[in-house]
Amino acid sequence: MKILVIGSGGREHAILRRLAADHPAPELHAAPGNPGIAQLATCHDVPVGDLDGQVSLAQELRPDLVVIGPEAPLVAGSADRLREAGFVVFGPSAAAAHLEGSKSWAKEIMAAAGVPTAASVTVTELAQLTSGLDRVNPLGDVPFVVKADGLAAGKGVVVTSDREAAILHAESVLTAGGQVVLEEYLDGPEVSLFCVSDGTRVVPLAPAQDFKRALDDDEGPNTGGMGAYSPLPWAPAGLVDQVLTTVARPTIAELAARNTPFVGVLYCGLALTSRGMRVVEFNARFGDPETQVVLERLTSPFAPLLLAAARGELAEDSAPTWSEDSAVTVVVASAGYPSSARSGDPITGIEACEALGAHVIHAGTASADGTLVSAGGRVLSVVATGADLEQARSRALAATEEIDLPGSHHRTDIARRAAAEAARAAEAPRAAELAPDATPDPAPDAATAPTTHGAPEETA
Fold it and tell me: What is the spatial distance between Cα 268 and Cα 204, in angstroms, rounded to a whole number?
């Protein structure tokens, strides 16, 4: 099988790495790719935004499958152009990708499909801003949640307890000609679930969780994602089935009823709130950095799954299989990220990092006169596995310390609380076995008890 992957980031590197592990391994091509991807695939100098060039390249290569990674070409119609040229494509049409391209339209789809989500108001004019905030925060509840309506690479969202900061962000979007979606704040931990769809049927992958804030303990501004882990030992039983029943299948059915079938990955960003599960957002592609840990745990063939979805031949009873191991990824970001991103700094230490048993995904890298340099905000993603979360995160952090990128920063708390909670849960039965006649401790009070729906480190 010959596969062409469109994209140049960490998500595409992770996809190609997993495709290369299939048996037999497909012939892999990427456009444009990056230095890490070039170790797995033949790279072609066709920019992500060059839709004509993508069609021409596909006509030259004649791939059996084209996989489109980033959201921008999907929203621009890359999948449509390639399908019109006769190619089998994994990725939604521009009309279906509008689910990510417009948060207000996504809200319309969710309302029609009966999908639970946050109450919201779409604001198109400055005069509507104050009243809109009052509608979604009627009692002055905080934080305020303000989202740019269009694509923003994961950074168009401001969650703040400062009303003036919320207003300033909304005003900046509106004065630039955009519109904003104001939402009620959703409490509780977040979950990312990728659902592969062929336009009718849906197959879920393993859930994961990412970390949006730039700094440890969820401090600092929002980013595209600074790390992730899978599985989620704290997730309630039946979570995936619940998402399929109440979110993914109704959404796919609603789009199909509108003659807008969704073929590709429906990324369900969810909050497990005190009032039940709510959708935070939909994306129309694999998420980054969650893809790195989800695909690291996938043990069944990947290419046949994508091909079946692209052909409309997905079988819901052919569930993917998963390793029992845990996977953790830590993102290494460039100096100044996310407010700015310094490029051109040399990167060393990758061999030492991988010698510790981790592997490195390239996200924002380039080659300059034979030297690997930074070329973006999120530069590398260090992925490690282990028998449990604590082992996986310890390995990932130790390996990350081997990376030398001047001015770079990374979080050190990825999966920390989830790992600690899992360790406590595993220790409890052993303690009870050692002291079967001991009087049980009284139930902890609400302020200190772990929540029933997840680790306490995550917020909407």
Answer: 10
